[in-house]
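B., you asked whether I could sanity-check this one before it goes into the benchmark set. Here's the sequence:
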Amino acid sequence: MGNDTTVCENANVLLQGPAGYSYNWQPSNGLSNPSAQSPTAIVSTHIQYVLMATDTAGCVGTDSIQIAVSSVAPFSLGADTIVCAPATVMLQGPAGYAYDWQPTMGLSNPAAQSPTATVNTSIQYILTATDTVGCTGADSIQLAVSAVPPFSLGADTMVCAQGTIVLQGPTGYSYNWQPATGLEQSICPVPHRQHQQQYPIHPHHYRYNRLQEN
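And here's what the prediction gave me:
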């Protein structure tokens, strides 16, 4: 009947008895025909099959085969997430397998357990993990990309000394104005170029709860 073996869960295994006898395979669980010389077994759990072969004189011989089942334990790549573009994301597969990440675009090493993904556009990565028997398991993770759309603070302008001006950023973000010096000045009706300053804005876009402007 051959050597004991290990197969993947729900594998089809062809059992092989000797020719020229009548056959009784036990247990009959998963067998296509327990009276056949070579039945097919659908194996979902560890099992031992025993064959009793009977000749025309009624003499009986027996043998057995142990079939173990291997499977990749269920795993998760984590929740789908939203990142800013460009972003570097560390992907994390389960330990102890061979790895195949698809697509390979942006990955530092598609055969690594934990490759780094450089993300510029929304993408779904699928990991297929394979054990030493050849059994596979898979999961996926969606990386959605969010970006602050281009915006304008308006035309450059001049204010008088001791004047104030209201700066207007886009709505729906948190803000970081730089430099912070001199942001509290009053407006004078006569512009004065000597007190002209530039104030770049660096909005931070929140992935889920957008903060209103301060």
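One thing to flag: The longest strand covers residues 60-70. Otherwise nothing jumped out at me.
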